[in-house]
């Protein structure tokens, strides 16, 4: 597994405001959206393309276009929905699948309550969106679902990742043939006793959409 923490002053600036407890939901949503577009630039570095010819007003030349089959973007509900527009802005032709997952705040185990994905993901590059990689249980279950359907390349985009979660994913997918990458805007210190990322930004779903 490869991990990339995007090191860029604009990313750091937006992430700092996102963390701030005083940032309200509308601002949080806008910043999350902007951050994803910056992360997506790095996360799609290996997106598959094919060579094409293009006629400019001056001459014919060579270029590329996104290859088939189209990439699949998979936001993990609820908080991952806040990253979808920022991603599809950069990859407008991608298809979108959905996974609904919730972590039991007592046991920290992830449960899948909704799944709307193509049955066959053979040869598909998949981009999973989830702002928080904490214990890694949610993301590991999501990546496993995609690999089981044949995905051969999975990149997760996270706003924050904890070292514990990254280690969990490393162990879970050690020896997996398909490339697996995590691209994050911030690599935080640790998890606290409630499984929250420290310093973190709190509950991403609540900050985006309100406390449920
Ligand atoms: O790495 P983990 O320990 O599994 O935790 C991370 C998960 O927890 C949060 O979702 P939550 O369960 O709060 O659902 P929500 O998006 O509906 O708020 C977050 O959005 C991740 O999906
Ligand atoms: O810090 C955390 C951990 C899990 N889920 C969140 O939304 N925040
Ligand atoms: Mg939540």
UniProtKB/TrEMBL annotation:
Annotated EC: 2.4.2.9
Keywords linked to the UniProt accession: Allosteric enzyme, Glycosyltransferase, GTP-binding, Magnesium, Nucleotide-binding, Transferase
Extent of the signal sequence: none
Highest taxon, organism lineage: Bacteria
Top EC class, one word: transferase
Annotated GO CC locations: cytoplasm
Cofactor note: Binds 1 Mg(2+) ion per subunit. The magnesium is bound as Mg-PRPP.
Domain Phosphoribosyltransferase: 6-210
Activation/inhibition comment: Allosterically activated by GTP.
HAMAP family the UniProt entry points to: Upp_B (MF_01218_B)
Function: Catalyzes the conversion of uracil and 5-phospho-alpha-D-ribose 1-diphosphate (PRPP) to UMP and diphosphate.
PANTHER family cross-referenced by the UniProt entry: ADENINE PHOSPHORIBOSYLTRANSFERASE, URACIL PHOSPHORIBOSYLTRANSFERASE, CHLOROPLASTIC
Family according to the record: Belongs to the UPRTase family.
Name assigned to this protein: Uracil phosphoribosyltransferase
Lineage summary: Bacteria, Bacillati, Actinomycetota, Actinomycetes, Streptosporangiales
